[in-house]
Amino acid sequence: MKIELKVQIFCEKCKTTILTTAANIDGVNSISLDASKGVLTITGTADAVEMVRKLRKAKISAEIISFGPEKKEKNKEKEEKKIECKQPYWYGFPQYHVYYEQYPKSNCTIF
Questions:
Q1: Measured between alpha carbons, how far is 98 from 85 in angstroms, rounded to an integer?
Q2: pLDDT > 80? residue 111
Q3: Residue in 52, 31, 38, 36 with CA at minimum distance from that of residue 7
Q4: 11, 27, 32, 70: which could form a disulfide with 45 (CB 3.0–4.6 Å)?
Q5: Which pLDDT does position 18 carry in this prediction?
Q6: Domains defined along the chain, listed by start
Q7: Over 70: is that where the pLDDT of 1 sits?
Q8: C-alpha to C-alpha distances, 90 to 66, 87, 93, 102, nearest whole angstrom
Q9: pLDDT tens for residues 30-85?
Q10: In sequence order, which residues have a C-beta less than 8 Å from that of residue 14 and are 6 or more positions away?
Q11: Residue 97: CB partners within 8 Å, gap ≥ 6?
């Protein structure tokens, strides 16, 4: 499950309090805090209501923004594939640097 909470962050001590409080709750797999937006994102099996209750007990204002299953982003993984250039090889005399590169999903070859 993915839980997004809106928290108020005033200083560095607030950040550490938020992160340590969230980390001490059972069922938390990962925590990310966007300080500029004031959004705490938690993934795992933790209870959202318990998370808000413990943050408020630690004197941190917290509200639930969204709660639901974690979305898997397969499209971004495909876009992140990088084209690797092969090492140049020597051809003829005088020696020229020849780079060979073939684009994926294409029959195009560039020399």
A1: 11
A2: no
A3: 38
A4: 27
A5: 92
A6: 2-68 (3.30.70.100)
A7: yes
A8: 58, 10, 9, 18
A9: 999 998 999 999 999 989 999 999 999 999 999 999 988 877 665 555 555 555 55
A10: 7, 8, 60
A11: 88, 90
Residue pointed to by tokens 């994102």: 41
36 versus 100: the higher-pLDDT residue is 36
| 3-class SS of residue 20 | helix
Q: Residue 94: beta bridge partners?
A: none
The owner of tokens 């560095």 is: 12
In this predicted structure, what is the pLDDT of residue 63? 93
| Rounded CA separation 18/24 (Å) | 10
Identify whether the C-beta of residue 27 lies closer than 8 Å to the C-beta of residue 54. Answer: no
* Rounded Cα gap, residues 111 and 91, in angstroms: 12
Residue 48, Cβ density class (10 Å: 0-12 exposed, 13-18 middle, ≥19 buried): middle
Is pTM beyond 0.70 here?
Answer: no
Alpha carbon separation from 101 to 26, 72, 84, 86, 88 (Å, rounded):
50, 31, 8, 7, 10
